[in-house]
C-alpha cells in the first residue's frame, strides 16, 4: 500500500493572473515532513494543426524566460471559466494562426513539470483546416504581434524535435503523438 502524503501547512507566496505559487509542508514516506514549492497553473491547450498535405503549423514566438524565440505549436491558457477545452483550442488556433478546423481530436495529455507544477496540457489534433476570413482575424498584441507562422511537413517537424530545434515540451509531445497516430 502506498503512503498517503498529506499537506500539513500551506503558505501562499504569490497570486497572479496565470499562476499562483505556494509552499506546502508535506508528510513524507519516512515519517518526516518536507517543504515543497508549488506552482498552480490554469492549464493549457495545444493544437497540432495538420493540413491535407501532411504539414503541421508551427509558430516561432518570443519567450522571455528563455530570452529567445522558439518553435512551438498554436496554444493558449485555459483561462476562460467554463470553456470546453476543444473550444479553447479552436479559439487559439484562430487567434494565433488564422485557421479554423472542421475536426478536433484529443491527441495526448501531459503534465509539463510535475516536480513543482500542476500544469495540465491537453493536445488536440486539428484537421480539415480553413483560413479565417481576413476581416474576421484577431489583432495580435504583445509577443504574439510578430509570430512567425510556417507549415512544415510532419516528418520534418519530428526531425526538428530529434535535432533539438523544437524543445517546447507540449510541442514535442504533440508532434511525436501526431506522427504516431498518423
UniProtKB/TrEMBL annotation:
Q: Which Gene3D superfamilies match?
A: Nucleoside Triphosphate Pyrophosphohydrolase
Where does the Nudix hydrolase domain start and stop, copy by copy? 40-174
Instruction: Enumerate the InterPro entries for this protein.
Output: NUDIX_hydrolase-like_dom_sf, NUDIX_hydrolase_dom
Pfam families in the cross-refs: NUDIX (PF00293)
A Gene Ontology molecular function term of the record: hydrolase activity
The EC code for this enzyme is 3.6.-.-
**Which segment of the chain is annotated as a signal peptide?**
none
**Name listed for the protein in its UniProt record:** NUDIX hydrolase
User: Per the UniProt entry, what species is this protein from, by scientific name?
Assistant: Actinoplanes oblitus
Amino acid at each position: 500500500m502506498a503512503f498517503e502524503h498529506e499537506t500539513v501547512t500551506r503558505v501562499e507566496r504569490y497570486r497572479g493572473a496565470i499562476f499562483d505559487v505556494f509552499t506546502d509542508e508535506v508528510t513524507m514516506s519516512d515519517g518526516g515532513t518536507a517543504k515543497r514549492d508549488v506552482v498552480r497553473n490554469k492549464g493549457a491547450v495545444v493544437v497540432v494543426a495538420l493540413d491535407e498535405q501532411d504539414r503541421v503549423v508551427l509558430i516561432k514566438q518570443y519567450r522571455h524566460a528563455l530570452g529567445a524565440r522558439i518553435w512551438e505549436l498554436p496554444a493558449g491558457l485555459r483561462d476562460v471559466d467554463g470553456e470546453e477545452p476543444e473550444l479553447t483550442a479552436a479559439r487559439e488556433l484562430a487567434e494565433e494562426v488564422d485557421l479554423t478546423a472542421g475536426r478536433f481530436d484529443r491527441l495526448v495529455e501531459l503534465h509539463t513539470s510535475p516536480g513543482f507544477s500542476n500544469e495540465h496540457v491537453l493536445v488536440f489534433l486539428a484537421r480539415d483546416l480553413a483560413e479565417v476570413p481576413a476581416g474576421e482575424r484577431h489583432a495580435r498584441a504583445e509577443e504574439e504581434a510578430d509570430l512567425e507562422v510556417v507549415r512544415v511537413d510532419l516528418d520534418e517537424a519530428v526531425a526538428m524535435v530529434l535535432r533539438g530545434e523544437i524543445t517546447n515540451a507540449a510541442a514535442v509531445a504533440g508532434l511525436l503523438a501526431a506522427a504516431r497516430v498518423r
